[in-house]
Amino acid sequence: MVKKNACVFISGQGSNLKNLIQRSRDNSFPIKIKLIISSDINANGIIYAKKNSIPYLIINTKLRNYENQILRNLNKHNISFICLAGYMKIISKFFIDKFRKNIINIHPSLLPKFKGLNTFSRVLKNNEIKTGCTVHYVNEKLDGGNIILQKSFYINPNDDEKKLKKKTQRLEQQIFPESIIKIFRYN
Asked: Catalytic pick from 23, 107, 136, 167?
């Protein structure tokens, strides 16, 4: 199997990044992570890049043409597939058009419910019975692209935001790699 060169965009802890790096070592997994991009210089996910000798780039998203810098680096590393794993910045239509159908995102809710930020507090405030996570293609609409996979779990009465986050992250560890396998199985 010829693996696709992939880049993972992060902004935080990097738990999904760590999982994807481990999975990408498997010969049957369809991507090889060749670059990591972070919008936060303090993102813990950078530690996984360093530990695994994967090139990384920290982007200052306050600069006007930061997406051009990203695109140059993606080209330099021959990236053909992008995974957004907790990346907390909106990607422009210009950028999306360059990678149409080759950018996926993981979101901590059962989309189309609870798009955007503060997902867990909104789930609890809305007295949802169950929640979960979604992997979807990225398009111009916030968390609005076609859904690839979803997984859910029932919410316990004693669940708070912290517990929901922990349960959701466990599901994300399963669903993100499964989604990537599904995408490349049918391509």
From this structure: 107
